[in-house]
Amino acid sequence: MGALLLFLCLLAPFVLACAARGRRRRAAAPACGKALPLPPGSMGWPYVGETFQLYSSKNPNVFFARKQNRYGPIFKTHILGCPCVMVSSPEAARFVLVTQAHLFKPTFPASKERMLGPQAIFFQQGDYHAHLRRLVSRAFSPEAIRASVPAIEAIALRSLRSWDGQLVNTFQEMKLYALNVALLSIFGEEEMRYIEELKQCYLTLEKGYNSMPVNLPGTLFHKAMKARKRLGDIVAHIISARRERQRGSDLLASFLDDREALTDAQIADNVIGVIFAARDTTASVLTWMVKFLGDHPSVLKAVIDEQEEIARSKRSPDAPLTWADTRRMRMTSRVIQETMRVASILSFTFREAVEDVEYQGYLIPKGWKVLPLFRNIHHSPDHFPCPEKFDPSRFEVAPKPNTFMPFGNGTHSCPGNELAKLEMLVLFHHLATKYRWSTSKSESGVQFGPFALPLNGLPMTFTRKD
């Protein structure tokens, strides 16, 4: 209950802002009625809506499932101070995220924009967003990242050595691994002298990310904003040094291309934003993979067999992995896909209607939030039989279009998905071939904050096999 109250307190500014905007919209609305009806559903109490119902259970997904069962694949509700339309069909998700994406803009609390940087890719639409997406996609394409395998492997091996024989918080260790890979992919290996200070500043920023946005000395938000300023200074120094020499092939080099005409402030906002995007989601999937493989010995054995076969094919036991090796990890890739489906780290995403929109005879009013419910789609028995069962073999056949969206969909889908999959494959090659792991005696379960995670970050002991 304490965690619930804290979470609701953290949401208070977002709730108040949405409520204020809602009052302005109602005041500005014309007196005449709308020809189209709103989607079915209920709106709950004034201002708070159904927020308490959403978070009264330990699993917020129960709220969405109940609503869908009662009202169907499109329904209205009122949560976090905002009127919302939830959509839980592949067709509706495609409508919002792909075919009519220009009618729905990404939306975040203003405090988040201040922390990450208002010119970061997440907050953009139109030509500027398309320009940024092209630059990020260019740096994180398979062609660009294939040469990074040895460097990512070195980070994985260092991480595993530090866990050996220790009881660790799996999620926290996976976050550190993902952060190190992100910094490598953004700055390359030449800027490592700045990395430790940059990392510490980022960790301070992260601690304040979900805090109350009160910028007073001593508060987490104030400390986070100071760390954000220092992060900007460090990135600016790196940019200045990089401009004076050969650019390289990392993300920073892509941003610094003379033809792209990005300002230093734009580059800094997007570098910090990419660090944020690359960390928690990848770490969450890796944590769930450890959990699911530990719970399913036959699947773990298949992964070990596959990875040991790749290890035996190398010229020597110490020979590094190659991009070609990762393309042979078909079973492990299916485990990654099934982990992302079952865990559905991103249960939904927020959009906001930029004008009145009609969908299947219903009105989605301008300013309303629209939430495609990824988890509901991923757990639909219509698309995935026995959806609660962990079964990687279901991905031996490609899923139907728009039924599997772990990285989102459309122009705002994750442009770093290939890098994320690569770092998972590299880590699990060495984890499966060199280590065994066992859970602590802690209580099993799931926690939400905001991503779904094994309880307490999955305390685990990793031990080298030899």
UniProtKB/TrEMBL annotation:
<dbReference type="GO" id="GO:0016125">
    <property type="term" value="P:sterol metabolic process"/>
</dbReference>
<comment type="similarity">
    <text>Belongs to the cytochrome P450 family.</text>
</comment>
<comment type="pathway">
    <text>Plant hormone degradation; abscisic acid degradation.</text>
</comment>
<keyword id="KW-0472">Membrane</keyword>
<keyword id="KW-0812">Transmembrane</keyword>
<dbReference type="InterPro" id="IPR002401">
    <property type="entry name" value="Cyt_P450_E_grp-I"/>
</dbReference>
<dbReference type="InterPro" id="IPR001128">
    <property type="entry name" value="Cyt_P450"/>
</dbReference>
<dbReference type="GO" id="GO:0016020">
    <property type="term" value="C:membrane"/>
</dbReference>
<protein>
    <recommendedName>
        <fullName>(+)-abscisic acid 8'-hydroxylase</fullName>
        <ecNumber>1.14.14.137</ecNumber>
    </recommendedName>
</protein>
<dbReference type="GO" id="GO:0010295">
    <property type="term" value="F:(+)-abscisic acid 8'-hydroxylase activity"/>
</dbReference>
<keyword id="KW-1133">Transmembrane helix</keyword>
<comment type="function">
    <text>Involved in the oxidative degradation of abscisic acid.</text>
</comment>
<keyword id="KW-0408">Iron</keyword>
<dbReference type="Pfam" id="PF00067">
    <property type="entry name" value="p450"/>
</dbReference>
<keyword id="KW-0503">Monooxygenase</keyword>
<feature type="binding site" description="axial binding residue">
    <location>
        <position position="414"/>
    </location>
    <ligand>
        <name>heme</name>
    </ligand>
</feature>
<keyword id="KW-0732">Signal</keyword>
<keyword id="KW-0479">Metal-binding</keyword>
<dbReference type="InterPro" id="IPR036396">
    <property type="entry name" value="Cyt_P450_sf"/>
</dbReference>
<feature type="signal peptide">
    <location>
        <begin position="1"/>
        <end position="19"/>
    </location>
</feature>
<dbReference type="GO" id="GO:0005506">
    <property type="term" value="F:iron ion binding"/>
</dbReference>
<dbReference type="InterPro" id="IPR017972">
    <property type="entry name" value="Cyt_P450_CS"/>
</dbReference>
<keyword id="KW-0560">Oxidoreductase</keyword>
<dbReference type="GO" id="GO:0020037">
    <property type="term" value="F:heme binding"/>
</dbReference>
<keyword id="KW-0349">Heme</keyword>
<dbReference type="GO" id="GO:0009687">
    <property type="term" value="P:abscisic acid metabolic process"/>
</dbReference>
